[in-house]
Queue: 4 jobs
Job 1
Amino acid sequence: MKYLLDVNVLLAAAWANHPQYPAADAWLNGKSVVVCPLSELGFLRISTNKKAIAVPMEDARKALEKFLTDTKATRVGDDLPALESHAQNSEQVTDQYLAALAHRHGFKLATLDGGIKHPAVELIEPTQ
């Protein structure tokens, strides 16, 4: 099975100081992972946001590149039309898109977000 990584998993796995790093790191062991432009862009946006992780863009890019290399991640294009993701409200737009994209390609969406309701979702249990 291949797993498309949600932005929250990318963040938790790439930043050792993230509170969910232990859960994400343990879950990733032996997994075949996939990223897409949307998840990579979300990682860069949140990593560099001064209200979040707040690292310089160059550091965020290096962290993402290292993570992708270390996990031997593959990429899939954002090839699902937006209207096929069926979000019900603004909070669901990205989550439902990533879940539908994973489903389209026969993957699971790996996430730390227990609120995403979609058959393609695999929840990584967060640490307490």
Job 2
Amino acid sequence: MLALVLLVLLTGAADAADLQTSANVRLRSAAEEHTGDLQTAEATVGLEAGAAITANWSWSGKLRLRADSEDRLEPGRPTQHERSDFNRRWLLGDTADLELRELYADGHIGDAFLRIGKQQVVWGQADGLRVLDVVNPFSFREFVWPDAQDRRIPLWMLRAEAPLGPATLQLLYIPDPTYDEIPLGNAAFAVTTPLLVPRGSTPIPVREAARPSGLRNSSDLGARVSALIGGWDLTLNYLHHYYDDPVPFIELSSTGATLAPRYERSQLFGASFSNAFGSTTVRGELGYSTDRWFITRSVTDPDRVFSSDEFAFVIGVDNVALADTLISVQYFHSQLRDPAPAMTRSSNERQATLLVQRSFRNESLKLRMLALRSLDRDDGGIQARMSWQVSDAFSLSLSLERFYGDRDGLFGEFRDASRIGLEAQWSWARDH
């Protein structure tokens, strides 16, 4: 709440000649494909402002007010246990919230660039899949369908960038222990797959996830070196962090079993590359993560989870040879270094995506289709979207989002959440 007050004070104190403001209003609804029942009927108001503070410093901020009359994406009053005390939404009853999405200051000290405050840092650019894009946690209230920028949860952090010879060094200090928001219970996109949630013959009590305590213990650190070498955009990445999904440990006692999740440390060593060859771009990401945790059904493992390092990569090819058309294909692979008996996932997991996007009428009309497919299980998802920019300030879109396949799969478990949506958006921008 203090940050909201600060944003208002900054806006009021800014020089009117420097102040830039924008706003957008979005109304959208979605009905479930099989039943016709409304899954969401949501109104969102976004406000952005920014201004110069001095010759070398400026500030920017974003607010979002959101209300959903159906209350099926986050039923009841969210506990926000995944968020730090200073990164919580202001809940307006069970169906509405106000959130400070971003608030940061940009500045230069010599050749170094600094961004201090609540922000997003994007390391990966894969569509629908994540290898390096793990600096910010994600909200999964609508699984993977919203744009990544809307799904990321901004964090309070310090970001510094400085030239390092022909390269650029980026350093991150993140004292904000906020993690993925994963819907459970009777939410429309509640996670139930045995890949992520232990199952027993009978329901067992569940504790809230144990969080790290203390500023030093809960903070994350990151570094990235980026350079353009021989036409290739290259990065080397390192992140020492708490993995954003809690480990679902099972605790046994004389009274029975209890699900006692807690967050565990991991280190990510990664790299990315991209280069354009005429109308085709080749890009990829590689990541080696230490101390990842996965679920096993083995009765000899009392807590039903095991630790293993994980190597993952994604390689993508984008082509724009056809006029006003983008075709993008991705292949994702995850391999465990130390697989365990009776684990619920495979030692090698493979997924693929296909993105086709075409624009018409000077880009005022766009058609977009994204397909995600598990190559090891018979499940996947398809999102088809038609957008019409009616005017500079007003747009309409129609979407179909469908899941299919095995109900125990990562995508197939959401078959009943397949939906058809309609959205209208108004936007304004002003330089004062």
Job 3
Amino acid sequence: MALITRRAFLGLTGATLAAGAVAAGAFAGWTLSANGARPLLLSARNDAAGKHYAVGYRLDGSQVFATRVSERCHDVVAHPSLPLALFVGRRPSTQSYLLDSRDGRLLQTLHTPAQRHFYGHAVFHKDGEWLYTTENDTSGPGRGVLGVYRLQGRQLQRTGELSSHGLGPHQLLWLPDGETLVVANGGIRTEAESRVEMNLDNMDSSLVLLKRDGSLLSREQLPERMNSVRHLAVASDGTIVSAQQYMGDPADPVPLLAIKRPGQAFQHFALGEAQRQAMNQYSASVAIHNELRLLALTAPRGNRVFIWDLDSAALRLDAPLADCAGVGAVAEGFVVSTGVGRCRLYDCRRNTITAQPLQLPAGLWDNHLRLA
């Protein structure tokens, strides 16, 4: 039986954003984050009519907020100490949305300046005063910049920008020192208000480390020029993992997962051939569980979720999940969302990983989720 597609799901469902949530307490026995609190799942989500929302849910299915926004969002970044979350506009959006994460109240619609658009990701500095976003300079399409914003009175003010030292920067994260940025430059040029790739025959993807002042520390590339470095996860020991999307021939045998361990070069992660083929040349979200030393990846075009041992690269899980999307670590293992079905908890505390559906609304979830 063919797996249902997101388009088909949208045609079948008439559910609202609140549909599918059940009584709180169904999973009260395990919904704890690493700091002992009940985690708040933050994500972008659509409704059946295609309207865009920024949402917050507890893992027992209880809705904290569902705030309608003008443009589709991609990733979410929570403030390190205040009840704030920025829902970042999906490429080539020029808007992002700063919300009060307690009730979903919209505090600010953040606009890019002229000839800039968001690439979907951002990070707050550990002191909470500064925000960095990946952006496109459309006056020189694909030239990557990091927008620099300062939080003042719960409003973000742009103060400048840094070079991403590459083309098409997508995700950025901090190394454990909290002062060094790692940037995934996708290597693709796009024009304003467009998602059309202009330079597939001359891509220039890279993994970059830079200081907060923009000083370049390193720039590394994978051997395959059309392997676009997109999404990132960073372990507490400084290990960096990146998930790729391959823009070349679908038959090319190219791994879509790469790793940079402390003191080592950026290189392919050891993938089994069956897993490589199952990804269908496209990976989405990636997450690391520091306590369990596990790595999780979603491959929505292949409808597969993968979990590996981070240190040995041993495969722990290869499971079907239609249109799987965001992934994030919780105490028990990983939470995974999906565009067409039930979100899942993958309990990784024993030798055999088990999955159970979460009582969250089914389907319509976007690419990423964050647990705050």
Job 4
Amino acid sequence: MSGCLLADIGGTKARFAVLRDSQLGVVETLATRDYANATDAIHDFLGRRRDERFDSAVIAGAGPVRDGRCTLTNASWVLDGGELAKTLGLRTARVVNDLEALAWAAPEFAASDVITIGRGQEEPSAPIALIAPGTGLGMACFVPADGRAMASEGGHATLASGTDDEAAVVKLLQRRYGHVSAERVLSGGGLVNLHDALVDRQEAQPPSPSPEQIVRAAIDGQSETARRALDMFCALLGSVAGSAALTFAARGGVLIAGGIAPRIVDYLRKSDFRERFESKGRLRDYLARIPTRIVIRPDPTFLGLVALARAGDRASA
């Protein structure tokens, strides 16, 4: 097949690789904030690969896609397939939602790519839900029976609290944001929001810790507030994942990806994650039969991007 540029572009990191002759090249990660736009980042990536040639691109963006155009939710970049194709001299440049691209990877995952938490057994050909807490909160669905993926902006749906403590946190966050979506707590910034809400920070207090610092302090037992924040993160992740399973009828399982969950697998196992996943009243038995798995494969979205590139190549043949 012809060479194809693949990209997974999020609010924090932009990852690039070239697919040639069915072989995926090395994935290079750049910081989104270091570039004014996608074109500058692509030129920088290609500048170190002057021998690479390609005539198409498949680009996943962390934001809603309409008419081949994506404005990143958590960064200033705008990805426009037509403009990128013209600027880079490509035959075609396809822009898709990043979770839609990840959804195309769902049937490609090997047993070693995921870690199962809790019970359950997937039903063949049933929908698979995907949730990815990272810089933002992505959500999508893959339907094996139809061979199609569906993007979603479910991460921006209104967050529902399940305990008095969570209700108090939501109330505090409403003062700051007005609308409190699931992404406001289930993301890197969301983990900081949880931590800050639990201490109800005032202006005179020290700067907030980073998400990495919160996770480290919680796991190492260095901070009770960090532990409470991470506990609440895990519980809310289970609750939102359970809601996604119901929304998509995801009897094929729920996959948790993104930059946070793979780093806290052991913590998730001991947390209320799975209990809250199943805790949906009359539908508890329904959810108890659905498996939840953490995606630990590095750069998993590229599996989906490869699948999309191959499908595009077959369509143009």
